[in-house]
Amino acid sequence: MALLGTGPSKGLKVKSKPRSEAHSLKRKRDDEDLDGLNQRVQGINVKGNEYETFASMPLSQPTASGLEASHYKTLTDIQKQAVPHALKGSDILGAAKTGSGKTLAFLVPVLENLYRRRWTELDGLGALILSPTRELAIQIFEVLRKIGRYHTFSAGLVIGGKSLKEERERLGRMNILVCTPGRMLQHMDQTAAFEIDNLQMLVLDEADRIMDMGFQRDVDAIVEHLPKERQTLLFSATQTKKVSDLARLSLRDPEYVAVHEAATSATPSTLQQNYVVTLLPEKLDTLWSFIRSNLKSKILVFVSSGKQVRFVYEAFRHMQPGIPLLHLHGRQKQTARLEITNKFSASKNSCLFATDVVARGLDFPAVDWVIQLDCPEDADTYIHRVGRTARYERAGRAVLFLEPSEEEGMVKRLEQRKVTVEKINVRQNKQQSIKNQLQNMCFKNPELKYLGQKAFVSYVRSIHIQKDKEIFKLNELPLEEFSASLGLPGAPKIRFLKGDNAKSLKNASRQAVTSSEDEGERDTVPGGESTSKKSTRTKYDRMFERTNQDILTDHYSRLVNGDQAQSENINDADESNDFLTVKRRLSDASSVDSAAEERLLPANPESDKAVGKMAVNVDSKRKEKLLKSKKKLLKLKKKGQKLVFDENGNPHQIYELENEDQFKQRGPADAQKAKFLEEEQARLQTADLADKQAAKAKRKEKREKLKAREAEGAADANREDGRQAVLVPFEGDVDEDLDTLDARDESDVGESPEPVKKRPRKWFEDDADDVGKPKRKQKGGIEVQEPETLEDLEAMASGLLG
């Protein structure tokens, strides 16, 4: 706001209008534009279909600018019929083919109706858009952001997998919400600041899916919270007209807009549709062969359950078909689902295994093939699945896999919905079987085997719960062969196939059950007597009844067939392009030179013949690289035996067994034992005598060296003092002690001498104390009296000092 001056001022004065006046003029122009827009909307001829482009329609400037910036110019058939009715405030039931632009048919009216009502942030929630899946809700929200970029509305995305607390903080300020039913109901029940009393529009995308048994309770609870006076828009490729569904949503004289009813088919004309009759055990073989033949295509494969998605994805990923593989199902985390959706949308050639979570509404660019590995539950599901390709007048192809028992019923249901599918055959020369590879993988990988068991049970359950029993005949399916095609050793037990009397059998007494089993297992022999079979089956019986006993591990094959047979098996596997062949065998000639080979092989010729040219198992490139190192090759070679050499230089093993006949020729064992002991005793005595003589000579040499050192010490002392001094390094007479030891050694030859234990001497004792203990001793020729008193000690010290 501009402020005007109150006092006099010098200079030139410029007059300007106040800002409030400018705002009032702008508001007046907006009111005039809005009144003109309302008049043009009221003058729309809903039966004329006079609009071909968005620019010719009575739309607001922000909406028109957003459509033009997003490159939306011309209207599709569903938009021509639905948008005029929605702009005038009518309830709509919209049905159109997949990929015909239904999203814009309800987003444009949502923006326009809120704009003409001057909706602001203070007015609260104005439009609620419900989607059955998170991926479809994200896609709708992205389109809303594009075409509504010039509006001032606040829009939000409320789906599962995100923080509930963060959504609560922003929910009260939103004008438009795109959400899934479960999370929306949770906020209605738990978020206090969430007000929906002023709701103007309710939109249900894929309405037939939202109102079926899966979302019926959530939708009913959501509708109870909403105000009765509102506009409701329902859009889907297969719409419902049931009075009960319309009454639940409180629709008031809805306009039924069906674009494809007059058409010859409920699917796009650019879609080529075929089906293949294949046995249940051969489905995975046919799918694998198809993927291998279309590596440069973008393929979307539908299966009936998330556990089947995981098994097929993991199995094919291990076999590496040569195309990027992705998988998507409802039990994944939201971040992973969003990442996989973006990857598949951006890729040019890839294969996505998915459940019906991506069957509705999602727009994947340029999908070449839609493969339905499992039969859809009804014709509507088929239409939604094939709608992921041939979108917006583009070409596309779809193939449906049918079991022989499903062919007649499913084709009949599709003809009733004006869907024509042609039967095609598979070229047998391009058909590849992966049954053995799956069995091998399941045998080596327990986790993959567990996934296969879960996939088998989930498939049988999906057939069991189907309503249309004319198509889905569980009793006619070859379940045992199907389990073998998944690589399983046998069909897993299925609890829900016990029959209607399962509960009564569970509550019955054990005696009654065993008696009934015994009666049922009795047979009649030709003689007329009845005998009962053995009803107890042990784990060994079950083990020998397995169907894949020919699948053996590598170490067992080597034990049975040897290394040569194992190498032949590996070579055969390499020739047949087996996907699971990992190990290679390299000879020494390819990795080590002759000099290194000579150093590694044993020295004696006999062991050379036994070992020969050894082959080394290589299971990785790293190990193959290590073979080129001579030092590291020692770790892979067979280690030799430790040898000892005799006097002639001939090698022998440390322990060698003697010939039994030669041993008996030398006499009985006891006599040989006694003779051996005598010889060993004589040998030990001779060796002991030689050892003692050597020890005596060593002591004599030591004594001579000691006397020489004493003589040298005495000569040095005489030169220094002029007196003769005798140094005694040991207590006692050395010569006497050594002579005594020598005499003892000579007298005790052949006997072990006992060590002589001497009493430790004190500082005032000498050898004479041991014999009679004299009181005097000689030291350097001076007679010294042992000191007894302090006077004697002083006299001895004065005598020594001279």
From TrEMBL:
Bias (Basic and acidic residues) ranges: 18-31, 596-610, 703-723, 754-773
Superkingdom as given in the UniProt entry: Eukaryota
Pfam families recorded for this chain? CTE_SPB4, DEAD, Helicase_C
UniProt entry tagged with the keyword Ion transport: no
Biased-composition ranges for Polar residues?
Answer: 505-515
InterPro entries (alphabetical)? DEAD/DEAH_box_helicase_dom (IPR011545), Helicase_ATP-bd (IPR014001), Helicase_C-like (IPR001650), P-loop_NTPase (IPR027417), RNA-helicase_DEAD-box_CS (IPR000629), SPB4-like_CTE (IPR025313)
Question: What are the entry keywords?
Answer: ATP-binding, Helicase, Hydrolase, Nucleotide-binding, Nucleus, Ribosome biogenesis, RNA-binding, rRNA processing
Task: Kindly indicate whether the keyword Ribonucleoprotein belongs to this entry.
Answer: no
Residues covered by region (Disordered) = 1-34, 505-540, 591-610, 647-672, 687-802
Acidic residues: which segments have biased composition? 785-794
Which Enzyme Commission numbers does its entry carry?
3.6.4.13
Gene3D superfamilies, alphabetized: P-loop containing nucleotide triphosphate hydrolases
Which positions fall inside the Helicase C-terminal domain? Answer: 283-442
Which Gene Ontology BP terms does the record give? Answer: rRNA processing
**How would you classify this enzyme at the top EC level?**
hydrolase
Where is this protein found? Nucleus, Nucleolus
One Gene Ontology molecular-function label: RNA helicase activity
Task: Give a short account of what the protein does.
Answer: RNA helicase.
Q: What's noted about domains in the record?
A: The Q motif is unique to and characteristic of the DEAD box family of RNA helicases and controls ATP binding and hydrolysis.
Name of the protein: ATP-dependent RNA helicase
Q: Which organism is it from?
A: Imshaugia aleurites
